[in-house]
Amino acid sequence: AAEHKFVLEIPKVELHVHLEGTITAELRWKFTQRNGTKLRIAKNGPELKTIEELRTAMDLLRPDSSRVNNDEERFQFFEAYYEGFECLKTKEDFFDLAMHYFEHAATVNVRYCELFFDPQGHTSRGTPWIVMMEGFREAQKKAEKELNVKSAWIMCFLRDHSPESAMEHYRAALPYRDIIIGIGLDSNEEDRPPVLFEEVFSLARHDGFKLTMHCDVDSKNTHDHIRQAGSIVAGQGLDRIDHGLNAADEQGLINLILKRDVGMTICPWSYLRHTTYAELGPKIRVLYDAGIKISINSDDPAYMEDCWILENMLLVRLLCGFDDKDIAVLARNAVNISWATSTVKEDIL
Ligand code: ADE
Ligand code: ZN
After folding, report:
1. How many contiguous H segments (helices) and E segments (strands) does the chain have?
2. Using CB atoms within 10 A as the burial measure, which of 47, 56, 159, 285 is most buried?
3. Domain ranges of the chain
4. pTM metric for this prediction
């Protein structure tokens, strides 16, 4: 249809996608075969013997608003997500994984992206930094040259690990700071408020990194976490908030986000794990209509029935009643709230 063509062709910037959330069943199978690693959906799960078994197990993790969540399901997602890391061993694996994202990105006209990665999930398995980062770097160079997709990396700390571990990883990553543009915070948010990580975020800002942080829709203290991320962490609050959808419930939070001009990365499909269709459209609309610079993104496409940025844009178009003009605003927001150089931004706009 015409709207599909418009959404497909518009130049895009993606700001919220976990590289480890792009390990599709096919990729995982390939890496597992190549490395001789075991294939399980979760650490304590049975060994999976075929790609079909893996596909079936991953399919059960997809967001589905007809069985709107419970914490149990959340836990299952994280268990599976981290078990998925196990197939990554060599520089070639990290290179192939990043290249797989960039190749997909090119097919839907993503021209620039800022990609999350979770170093703690790799160092804890004995992966050397150089293996990860040089794999990323080579893919990034090749994508820019051959696919016209530019990129930068956002290093996320796992908030269910200690602030000390975050600090250690921050320091260890400094030799690669030429390709790391920002610092983020992800993983399970339960009892892990933004202010716990004040020290490392303040230091990172001082050192010139951009700052963002997940404020997930299912966090029990969602409003307080958005307030902390928006106004307290690193002295005055962060540069962006990832998700933060529940700001739509409180005018005070909306005002704060507007006043500080904080960009927000919204991942519609992801919220169907915890929200109904009926709730989702209106909430996104509240933020959009308030004039907040929200962007549309994919989060963990491999765990979401292969829904990438294009499918997420089509979903909000439908759920929020957006027209092509609105889609163009959302695409422009992503360019504006990105941390790309002005030359890169102008080239996309
Ligand atoms: N890491 C990867 N996916 C995530 C999500 N949806 N929420 C928090 N942390 C994540
Ligand atoms: Zn995320």
Report:
1. 16, 9
2. 159
3. 2-348
4. 0.97
